[in-house]
Amino acid sequence: MLNLLWLIPLLPLAGALLNIAAGRKLGDPRSGWLATSATLISFLTTVLAYFELLGRQAEKRSHVETLFSWLPVGSLQVDFALLADPLSITMSLFVTGVSTLIHLYAIGYMHGDAKFSKFFIYLNLFVFSMLMLVLGENLLVTFLGWEGVGACSYLLISFWHTRNSAAVAGKKAFVTNRIGDFGVMIAMFLAFSHVGSLSYGAINEAAHAGELAAVSATAIALLLFVGACGKSAQLPLYFWLPDAMEGPTPVSALIHAATMVTSGVFLLTRINPVLHVSYAWVSTTVAVVGAATALFAATIAVSQNDIKRVLAYSTVSQLGLMFLAIGSGAYVAAIFHMVTHAFFKALLFLGSGSVIHGMHHEQDMRKMGALRKVMPITGFTFIIGWLAIAGVPPFAGFWSKDEILLYVFAKSPVLYVVGIVTALLTAYYMTRQVIMVFYGKARWRDHGDEHGAHGDFTPHESPRVMLMPLVVLSVLSVVGGAMQLPFSKDLHFLEHWLAPVVEESEAHIGKTWAYQNKYLLLLLAVAVATAGIVLALAVYAKAKLKVVEPKVLEQAWHYDGAVARVVAGPGAATFNLIAWFDANIVDGIVNGVGQVVRSVAGSLRKAQSGFVRVYALLISIGAVVILGWLLLRGVVL
Amino acid sequence: MNDLSNFFGPAVDWLAISPLLSLLAGALTLLLVGSLTGQWPWRLYAHLTALSAVIAIAISIRLWGDVGTNGARLLIGGALALDQFALFAAIAICLAIALVSYLTSDYLNREGVDLPEIYALYLTAGIGALVMIASNDLVVLFLGLETLGLSLYLLAASNRRQVSSQEAGLKYFILGGFASAFFLYGVALVYGVTGSTRLINLNAALTSYIPVPRNDAVLLIGIGMILIGFAFKVSLVPFQAWTPDVYQGAPTPTTAFVASVGKIAALVALVRVFVVAFPSRSDDWGTIVFVLSALTLVVGSVVAVVQTNVKRMLAYSSISHAGFILVGLEAASHRASANVDDGLVGVAVYVVLYAAMVVGTFGVVTVVTSDQANSDASGSASLDSFKGLAKSQPLLGLAMTVLLLAQAGMPLTSGFVAKFGVIQAAVAVGSYELAVIAMVCAVIAAFVYLRIMVSMWLADPSDSTTVKVPPLSRISIAVAVAVTLVTGFLPSLILDLGSNLAELASK
Predict the structure, then answer these.
(1) Nearest CA to CA, how far is B36 from chain A (Å)?
(2) What ipTM does the predicted assembly reach?
(3) Taking CA atoms, what residue in B is nearest to A614?
C-alpha cells in the first residue's frame, strides 16, 4: 500500500488538471463535486496508509517511496521521493480530511460565482502542493510544495482580483512570504554544503550522530525558522495574514487557518534533531517569538470589528502558541494543538463564512446580532468552536492548549505567564465575538438597506452542503482532545504515535515541578478561561463594565502602518534606484551590444552585393590569406 | 602490351553499398519510366523517391548492427569506408531526401509542374552525398562532390519561370566550379608529396615522412587548398557569399535540400579527410579551422540579425550552424587530448539533428510562402508573411516555434543536445576561447529566431492570409518536429548511439 503513496498528492493534481481541461463544461456545481471527490479519495488513501503504518512496529513506521531521480548533478543527488512516517501521515490526514470538508462547503459558498471552476482548480492545486510539502522526503520536494502553497495562496487571496484590496492583499502575502522563502533556500544550501544531502533522513541522521556541528545546525535551524515565520505569520512577518482575509472564506478556513500557515510548525518539527543539536538559545528564540506573537495578536483581536479579522488575529495568536511549544521542546503538543486548531478554527471560519453568506457579504460584527435565531445550526456549531478555542473542558482546544502550557511552565514560568494571559484574552475576545454575532439586539434590521434587500431584510440559514462540514467539524472539535489525554501514560495516543519522529528531541519534564503539579495548572487554566468568558459577558452582554477597545489595538499597534511607511518611503526609494540601475545601466549595456551588432552587420552586409565577381574576389582573398599563412608555417616557422 | 586477362576488379560487397544502389534504382526508375509514361498520379514521384530513401535508411540501420558486431571496414578495394560515422550521416541524408521530396511534391503541384526530373536530381544528389561521406579516397571524394554539386546547381535553377532561381543556379555553378578547382589542385599537390590519394595511405606516408626542416610548404598548401574547396561547399566565412543568394533564389524545398543534404555531406567528408588523412598536420590546419569557425559563427549570427527576408535569415543561420559544427572539428584536431573523440561524436550528432531542424524549418517556410500574397516578387518570404501565423494556424505556428527554438539551442529540443555536444567537446580539449565565442554567437543568433517568433505570436495576421498546410508537407513537418522534440526530451536515445561513432574505418 505504501508504495502507492504518490496517489495521495496525485489525486488532487489530477482533479485540478481535469478541471483545467473540462471545468468550464462541467460548470457549477459539478466541477466542485469533481474537486471534492478528488480530495476525498486522497483522504481515504491516506487513511489506508495510516492503518498500514499503524500495523507496523513503532521503529519500522517509516517508508520512503522514491519516484525518480530528480537532480543527479555531480555530488548533489536529489530524488523525487515521498516519505511516509507518523508525522507526515498525521499531517496528510488532517490536510486531506479538512480539505475535503472545506471543498464540500465551498460548493455551496461559491455557488453562482463567475469563476466557480477556476476556484476549485486553485483549491485542488493547493491541496496537491500542501501534500507535497508534508510528504516530501527532502527539503527540495518540500520546498516545491512550499512555493506551490505560496502561489496558490496568492491566487486565492486575490481571487476576486477586480477588488483592489484583494489584489493588494494577495501581493502583500506573496512578497512577505518571499522574505521567509529566502531563509529556506539558504538553509537548503547550508544543509547541502554541511551534510551533502537534502534528504531529511540524512540531515536528521547527521544531527543524531553528531556529525553536524552546533554552529551549522544553529544556522540551518534559524534560517528555516525565518521561513517558518513568513509562512506561519509570526512576528515580524505576521502582517500579511489578517489582510489575506480578502480571499473567499473557504480559502481563509483552509489555507489561512487550518493547513498552510501550520507548515512552519511542521517544518521545524520535521528537522527537530537539528534544532535539538543547535545552541540552546535557538529554541529560546523560537519560544520567545512564539510567545510575543501570541500575546501581541491576542491583544489586537480584542478590538477588531470584522468577523474574519478577529479570527485571523486569533489564528496568528494560536500559531504563536504552537511555536512557543516547539521552542519549549513540546513537539507532540505543538502537533496536537495544530490538529485540534485545524478542527476548531476551520469550524469557526466556516461558521463565519456561513454568517457572511447569510448576511449578504456583510462582515462587520457591529451590524450583526441575535443571529442564532435565524441561523440555528451555524450558531450552535460556532458556539462549540468558541468553547473549544476558549479552552473550556472537555472541548478539544482545552487539552492541547493545556499540554503546551505545561511544557512552557517547565521551560520558563515567565513565558507561562505570557501564555496564560494569551489564554485569558482568547477566551475574552472569542466570547465578545459570539455575543456580538449571535446574541444581543438584531442590529442588522437597521442596516437592511445596505444589503440591497430593501426594507424587509432577514439573514437566512445556509444550504445543507455548507452546514454538513460545520457539523462534522464541530463533532471533531468536541472529541479531538481524545487523541492525547493527560490523565495516564496510556492515554497519550499521539505521543506514542509520533514517538519515532520526535522522541530524541522532546523535552523531558517528568521531574519538574510543573509536571508534578499538572492538575493544579489544569485547574488554573480552567479558571483563566472562565475568567475571560465572564469578563466578556460582563462587558458585552450585561454592559456592567465599560467597553475597552482602544484605537491603537484596532490599528494593530500601528505595526502594519509603520511597515508600510518604511516600505513606501526609504524602501521605495531604494527599489527605484535598483530599477533605475536595471533600466539604464544593465539594459543600456545590453542595448548597446545590440546596437554594435546591428551596425557591424550593416557594414558586413555591404559586401553582399550580388555580383559574382565580388564573391569570387572574397574567395580569392580568403584563399590568399590561408595559403599565405600555411606557406609561412611551412617555410619559415 | 597490357594483358587485360590479368586485370581483376576489386571485390564488391554489394550489401554494404546497397543504400547507394537503392537511391540509384529510384533515380533510374524515375528517369526511364518517367520519361516513357505520362504524368504519374497520386504523387507517385514523391512516394517513389521517399521509398528509395526509406529503403536506404532501412539498409543503413541493418548495416549499423553489422558494423557494431563485425567492426568498421573498407569497401571496394579501399575506395569507400563502412563505419558508423558514415552510416549515421547516411541516415540523416536519406531522411532529409524523404522529407524534402514530400515538401517538393506539394510545392510542384501548386505550381502545376510535378515532373520526375527534380526527384531524380534529389536522388542523384543523394548518391553523390553518400559517396562523399563514405569516401576513403580523395579522387572518389571528388567524384561524389561533383555528382552532388552538379545536381545541386540544377536544382537551384530548377524554377525556370523565375529569374532569381536561374540567377541562383548560375552563381552557384560558377563559384562551385571555382571552388572545385581549388579542391582538385589541392589533391594534386598532396598526391605529389605522398604519392597516394587513399586517405589511409596518406596518413601512413605523412606520419613516416619526416619533413625537411622548413620545407613542408607544398604539402601544407595542398591541404589548405582542399580546405578551401570544402569551405566553399559548407559555406564558411569568407567563402560563404553565394549562400544567401542561392538560398533566397532557389525554390524553397530545394533550399531545404541544399541546406541539409549538401551541407551534411560536405561537412562529414571534410571531417573524415582531415581526421583520417592529415592528423599529423593538425597543428597547422587546426588553427585555420579555429579562425574559420570563429569567423563563421560571428558573421553568420551577426548578419542574420539585420535580414528582413526569412530565407536569407535562415541562410545566415545555416552559416552559423556550420560554424558550430566546425567547433567539433576543431576539438578533433587536438590530438594530444584524451577527449579528442568527443569532437567527432559532436559533429555526427549535430549534423543528424540539424538535418531534421533545417528541413522542418524550410518546410514551414515553403508552406507559408505558398500563398502568393505572402511572397514578394521573387517568390521568397519576407518576415511580414509570418505575422500572426500562430493565430491563423496555431499548429503550424507551434511547429515553427519548436523548430526555431531548436535552432536557437533551447534545452528540451534537439538543438540544445547538438550545441551542447560540440561545445562540451571544445571544453573537454581545452579550447575555451572557441567555446565562449560559440556560446555568445548562440545568444546573438537566438535574437534572429525570436524575431520570427515574435512576428508569429504577437503580431496580428493580415487579412489576406489563407495559409493551408497540404497533407504531404504536414507529414514532413510533423516528422521533423517529432525528431526535434523526442531527441530533445530523451537525448540519451541519440547519444547512446553515438558511442562507437569515433571508430572510423580507416583510422
Answers:
(1) 39
(2) 0.82
(3) B241
